[in-house]
Design a protein that fits this description.
Layout: H1 3-12, H2 16-44, H3 50-61, H4 63-68, H5 72-79, H6 81-101, H7 103-111
Helix pairs in contact: 1-2, 1-6, 2-3, 5-6
């Protein structure tokens, strides 16, 4: 969702107050997302194999950045910054919607950790 602030910044142009807000919002959202992701991974891990399972799950989660990241420059050249940031927001929507519907599953997982 913080990508929408980057889209607005790209549309508005040079604006230091908006840039400060955008970067602060991105850092806040990224920090909260990272904390939630780490907590979620720890719920999924069996306490006997926590280090191994956490390492495997976090490595698996980073594959998207490794393979999609290099393509972003090409996409920006083709689309422009504002459209690029809006498309990244749209690509994130299915995951956010799925997360909303998975709320009950996550809450039940907190009670009984699953072994991988």
């Amino acid at each position: 969702v913080s990508n929408l602030s980057f889209m607005i910044l790209a549309m508005v142009g040079k604006s230091y107050p908006l840039m400060i807000f955008t970067i602060a919002f991105e850092n806040l959202a990224g920090g909260m997302g990272t904390a939630a992701f780490v907590a979620f991974l720890m719920i999924l891990c069996d306490h006997r194999f926590t280090a191994t399972q956490f390492a495997l799950l976090s490595a698996l989660a980073s594959l998207g950045r490794v393979f999609v990241g290099p393509l972003s420059g090409v996409l920006v050249d083709e689309m422009g910054w504002a459209t690029f940031f809006f498309s990244t927001f749209l690509f994130a929507l299915p995951g956010l919607i799925l997360l909303w519907f998975m709320k009950e599953v996550v809450e039940s997982t907190e009670k009984e950790p699953a072994a991988l």
